[in-house]
Amino acid sequence: DAGVTQSPTHLIKTRGQQVTLRCSPKSGHDTVSWYQQALGQGPQFIFQYYEEEERQRGNFPDRFSGHQFPNYSSELNVNALLLGDSALYLCASSQTGTGMNTEAFFGQGTRLTVV
Amino acid sequence: AQSVTQPDIHITVSEGASLELRCNYSYGATPYLFWYVQSPGQGLQLLLKYFSGDTLVQGIKGFEAEFKRSQSSFNLRKPSVHWSDAAEYFCAVASLGQGGKLIFGQGTELSVKP
């Protein structure tokens, strides 16, 4: 089991550009969540996708958008990049199911640097 | 609003000494609580979780945590720390138990002295 995989591992972008980050969930998982972790901080919830729909959203502007594909993989898109978007972006997958106590498994993250 | 507080930003312990990392939460209903560990530049690894039942939870790598509802705490403990335990530790509460949104504390950085 490959676990949660994210690509790319590192990325450097210029202010104003757009970026797409990708995530493949752990085998058997159908739910993907994205988190932003600024340096020295705990991860902050961006949004969660289930059945190709955004199910929950954190306090992030509309510049942050996402998508989930039929194979449960997901993309995070950020438009009009700001210097403050520099962070480690973490993807977490889980299984949504009635009566199941599940946990989120995290990928290694994508380190985004905006210059 | 739900929140998690980790009062200690940085802790240093000697190898072989015991460890306790503090975590306090604010949550209206029965919380689902987690401890994660993160090595530099890496993702998060789950150490242990509390959903219900026994308030003393055993995890991986010799860690345990105790849920105390009256104190709104979920402190992480280890009887004897190893140098490889040096990392960042995050406490988190889930707003929905089943893979829901996680709310993290600021983290506690653990350093281990030889």
Q: Can you characterise this structure?
A:
The complex is a heterodimer of chains A (115) and B (114). With 115 residues, chain A is mainly β. Chain A has no helices and eleven strands. Chain A has strands spanning 5-7, 10-13, 19-24, 31-37, 44-50, 53-57, 64-68, 74-78, 87-94, 105-106, 110-114. In chain A, the strands form two sheets. In chain A, strands 2, 4, 5, 6, 9, 10 and 11 form a seven-stranded mixed β-sheet that branches. Chain A has a four-stranded antiparallel β-sheet with strand order 1-3-8-7, with no helix packed on it. Chain A is globular and about 40 Å long. The N and C termini of chain A lie far apart (36 Å). Chain B has 114 residues and is mainly β. Chain B has a single domain (3-113), classed as Immunoglobulins (Immunoglobulin-like), CATH 2.60.40.10. Chain B has strands spanning 3-5, 10-14, 19-21, 24-26, 32-38, 44-50, 56-58, 64-68, 73-78, 87-94, 102-104, 108-113. In chain B, strand 8 and strand 9 form a beta hairpin. Chain B is globular and about 40 Å long. Classes of the chains: A mainly beta (115), B mainly beta (114). Chain A binds chain B through residues 4, 31, 33, 35, 40-45, 48, 56, 58, 88, 90, 92, 94-97, 100-109, 111, and chain B through 4, 32, 34, 36, 41-46, 49, 51, 90, 92, 97-107.
Short description:
Chain A has strands at residues 5-7, 10-13, 19-24, 31-37, 44-50, 53-57, 64-68, 74-78, 87-94, 105-106, 110-114.
How is this fold's topology laid out?
The complex is a heterodimer of chains A (115) and B (114).
Chain A: E1 5-7, E2 10-13, E3 19-24, E4 31-37, E5 44-50, E6 53-57, E7 64-68, E8 74-78, E9 87-94, E10 105-106, E11 110-114
Parallel strand pairs in A: 2-11
Antiparallel strand pairs in A: 1-3, 3-8, 4-5, 4-9, 5-6, 7-8, 9-10, 9-11
Chain B: E1 3-5, E2 10-14, E3 19-21, E4 24-26, E5 32-38, E6 44-50, E7 56-58, E8 64-68, E9 73-78, E10 87-94, E11 102-104, E12 108-113
Parallel strand pairs in B: 2-12
Antiparallel strand pairs in B: 1-4, 3-9, 5-6, 5-10, 7-8, 8-9, 10-11, 10-12
